[in-house]
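Below is how a single chain appears once it has passed through the pipeline. First comes the sequence as given, then the structure the pipeline wrote out for it. We keep one example in the README because the format questions we get most often are answered faster by looking than by reading.
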Amino acid sequence: MLNSAMKRRSLHSANPKVAASFLIPLLVALVGCSTQPPYAADAISAPTAWSAMQQEGLSAATTNTQWWRQLHDPAINALTGAALADSPTLAQAMARVDEARAQLGISSAQRLPTLSANAGSTRARSLNTNSSDASTRTTTATSVGIGPSWELDLFGRIRNSVDASGRKLDARDADARAAHLSLTSQIASQVLALRACEFSSMVLAEDIDSREKTLQLTRRRVTTGFVAPIEEARAISGLATARTSLAARRQECARSANALVALSGQPLDTVRALVFVPLSAPLPSAIGRDTRFGVDSVMPVAPHARLSLPAKVLAAHPSVVSAEREVAAAWAEIGVARAERLPRLDLSAALSGQWLHAAGTTLDYTAWSAGPALVGSLFDGGRGAANVAATEARYRGAVAALRIAVRSAAQETEDALAAVASSDERRLTTHEAVVAARLVLEATEARWRAGAVSLFELEDARRQFAAAQDSAITAAQDSGQAWISLVRASGNAAVTETALSS
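Resulting structure:
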């Protein structure tokens, strides 16, 4: 029985060493294991075809980094170049990219060993207890040491952390591309809006000038008793209404001009000088030449655009790419959170030199240590489990955000395609309306001067002509705006006829 007890005591004392000798190699063999399977992106749920576009002979989606030049508008080119050179919005987006890149560097640095160094020197005076006269002695102690350490990535914590940082960097790159597209499309849209507003104001000014002349003639006829005084009141009312419309239109022009100033960073006078096109400037035909107004066109003609299949367009859309990269990052962060609950194995070493000088005697020695250290949490109150649950919830939220991004991009593209089709048709019909309304106004004005029709009929013809001109300007603006919206909605994946022919 005594031998049995001694044998049990011997095994008990040897268990820690035996366990360590088996546990450490086992953990080392687990290096590279992961608590999370590799990320696999799900197929984007996209419609099979665009409902507002014929699909025959479509080309693959392409990206034209200077897409706005296809409008051949000097103002858009100049203001876009100024904005891209000094835009706070783009600077903010690029700062986020740089931050994400730095975070990737921080995460990647965990893969490499760290090396620490320390040095110190201490000088002290103490009582010499070995002396009978209670004398003191001065002691100088100096030490220098280095200590390398390296965490073995047992369960993929570091690898998943690097993966998450890399996916976030991709997402910020996509956000920067979206910011670039948003800025350039806003400038192009505001240039069209300001130019349309300026020319519409000129139409109203021409109308007001005509009404003032009509009012003068009406007052002469009232004085001579040729027409009733109510005709003068009718002329004054129409003139006041036209002046009110002009004041409101000029306010709209000011807002568009101020928006361009904020977007491009250029002075207001520069913006107006670039955007306002002289009446003699040769531009593509939009509403036909108006002999009274002298305008060949108020807007550049947008190129005809086509898109490839929805799945290809949406897969390359910046907002969809950013959302999908966030999903991938959230997936990797789940692996990080799970690995945080498991033990860590650190390989560490220390090498130090000590020098001690006292009472004329110097003592020096070198110490070193090396070995693995296994660190793990036995009880954390549920913090680790809650952290895993939080990362899983963030992943589900990222998946939902991706679905929202896909649906929003698809809807905006469909809306833009419908707007392109509608605006192209309205541009032609409004041109016809301007030509017809001008003929009616000229004929009615001649008959009114001859006294064959009343002022009411003349004012009605004038209103129809002004409305036709304003509709033509709006349709020309909408045509260009619809194409810009299509470029932005599709993530700059619109393929123009020029690109197709080249």
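The domain at 64-111+158-341+397-501 is CATH 1.20.1600.10 (Outer membrane efflux proteins (OEP)).

See the next section for the split statistics.
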